[in-house]
Amino acid sequence: MTQTAAHHETRINSRILVQAAAAVCEDKKGQDTRILELDPIDSGLSDYFLVTSASNDRQAVAIADEIELRLKREFGVYANSVEGRRKGEWILLDYVDFVVHVFLAERRAFYDIERLRKSARPLTPPEFDAELKIALAEKTRALRTKSAAKTRPAAAKSVTKAGKPAKRAAAPKKLAKKAAPAKKPATRSSAKKTKPHAERFGATGAKPAG
Question: What pTM value is reported for the model?
Fold first, then answer.
């Protein structure tokens, strides 16, 4: 796998995790949930910020706890670090490739992460979900194409192998022909008999007239 393909695969995996975390925010009544797709030049290590608001500290802690639990249970993924859980005003869950920010509404307005990340592309959970489905469909098509490309040469090879005529059995070596026995030279007596016969019928073998 090339570096570009590996990075693309990592981003798709990150999107799936972000989508799951965003679903928790929706289930726990998080407010104004946004996903920021960060500019690669400006983002450092992370690809996404997930930002949501809670009306009180208990709700903020409940959202953060449920995100941790669901990602651990469904994907075996643990947060690299968790900050702010004690006060519940701003809880940060760092999953390296993406970071979850659960704010109290007034704290979110004060820090205004969306304004600080002007180069980021903001998406609502439904918009993000639609883009993820397209990315997964493209990935599936690419895998099928790759699989089909691998299958074709193998099938062609087997057809060629099956289509080859069976090798003919090596022809047995021809037995050397026995040399015909040399004809014995004609005896003098037969020569004598032959000569008058030739003289009698002429050189052409035709009988003389009369």
Answer: 0.66
